[in-house]
Amino acid sequence: MRACPQCGVSNRIDEAFCVACGTYLAWDAPAATAPAAPTTPRPTPIAEQPPDVPRPDFVGPPATQLAGPPQTFPSAPIRPQTPMPDPVGQPPPVPHVDPNPIAPLDPSAAQSPSTPPNPAAQPGPTAPVADTTAPAAAEQPAPVAPGRASVRRPLPSEVPRDVEVDGPECPRCGTRNPVARRFCRRCGLALTAAPSESRLPWWRRLRSRRAGGSGLLRWLLILVVVVALVIAVIALYPLGRAAIDDLRDRLATPRAVAVASVTGSESDPAHPPAAVADGFSNRFWSAGEVGDSVEITLAGPVRLLAIVVHTGCSAVEEEFACQARAAELEITTISGDGEETLDIQLADQPGEQETLTGISDVTGIRVTVRNRHGADDGPIALGEIELFGRN
Fold first, then answer.
1. What is the pTM assigned to this prediction?
2. Superfamily for the 255-390 domain
3. Which listed residue, of 114, 227, 355, 360, carries a Cα 20 to 30 Å from 201's Cα?
4. What is the pLDDT of residues 14-43, one digit of tens each?
């Protein structure tokens, strides 16, 4: 585990960013591919070679300590030295140098006159000795000139494999992160969504314009929008008014409309046209034939909501079919805007039959008989007409 230096939260060793605060953690990670600096071998110091001095095979005491007649001693046969072949790819060997050279002595002064020669001490002929200077020289390290150190090749290191994580993807690098993380485990991007900038209101966007512009295009656009709004209001005003009136009709309580006068075609004096608006369902207007009409004048302009019709002679079942009954009526409403006509189909049964209208500013209506039930000839009975509306 690796502790975050910023917040102290423990993270896995392969995490590059802290799981809590997003701090970069790989500053102190050991470099996996950085090679170690090679050590340059120091060259072996070469001793300063003294001048070549012939070395005799036999070395005796110093000349100052010897006295006596000169004597000759047999010397060991000198074996010719065969030069050793140089190793392939190596520098020539350095000759062996004796660190304590001894000055040569004269063989004639080998014995002192005062010291008798010791026959036992005199060396006899010596056996030939093999020369070991060449192998010794070959074992010595060769001098190396200072040069540029070679860089060691980096060794391959095992790259930790990413563990498959089921979580949201980073919007920058696409790496999947655990749900509880607040920073991406690969690039350190904050995974929490930044607050979106609030959009300016429409009236502030209309006021904005390009720097250095005259604003003519903006004013033309505003003028076009205003004209379009005016045209839309004029065109949609009737529809809007109708929708408002319909809503008010549904919310309002209908009331009976006062009738000022009733006039109509000639009929039976016992059943005059005024009987259709007298408030009694057992009284009726007796129309002479199909096509006769009656006109009802209202006390003032009202919004007509409904028309209730009672056909036949009476609301009582036994008295209902005393004569022919109206089967179809043509209702013509009269208002300040003109006349509007609608047809009403009536069932051949006693009782009220309601028809919704919803017409404004009605000042009167005209009722015309267009069809009949019962006998094909004779008078036609129309019991009562009730009008309901609101101001």
1. 0.41
2. Galactose-binding domain-like (2.60.120.260)
3. 227
4. 888 888 888 888 776 554 444 444 445 555
